[in-house]
Specification:
121 residues, mainly beta, 46% strand
Length: 121
């Protein structure tokens, strides 16, 4: 069972930037980022293929967030720029055993513990 550990969440002002990291044990997987705001369901943020050559994003973050990976370190990153108060949420990374990434939660087999991102106005 792959283990995922996120880090990098903190309080940041609106318009600022933040980079989250997700370290995976063992091997490379298609990876996704999701987030859950208070009182809301968890939602898809973005995903990256195992090779890192392909990414996809939710419309709400497209152009502001970028996912990348360093397979030598088994680590995936979520670079968040131009942050808005509505980006406030617990952010989760997830790994999929499938051949490619997905935008759907049920396609992911392992989840990190989450890291809190708070954007102040």
């Amino acid at each position: 069972q792959v283990q995922l550990v996120e880090s990098g969440g903190r309080l940041v002002q609106a318009g600022g930037s933040l980079r989250l990291s997700c370290a995976a044990s063992g091997r490379t997987y298609p990876m996704g980022w999701f987030r859950q705001a208070p009182g809301k369901e968890r939602e898809f943020v973005g995903a990256i293929s195992s090779s890192g050559l392909r990414t996809t994003y939710a419309d709400s973050v497209k152009g502001r967030f970028t996912i990348s990976r360093d397979n030598a370190r088994y680590t995936v990153y979520l670079q968040m720029n131009s942050l808005k108060p509505e980006d406030t949420a617990v952010y989760y990374c997830a790994a999929s055993s499938a051949l490619t990434y997905s935008t759907t939660e049920r396609d992911y087999d392992a989840w990190g513990q989450g890291t809190q991102v708070t954007v102040s106005s």
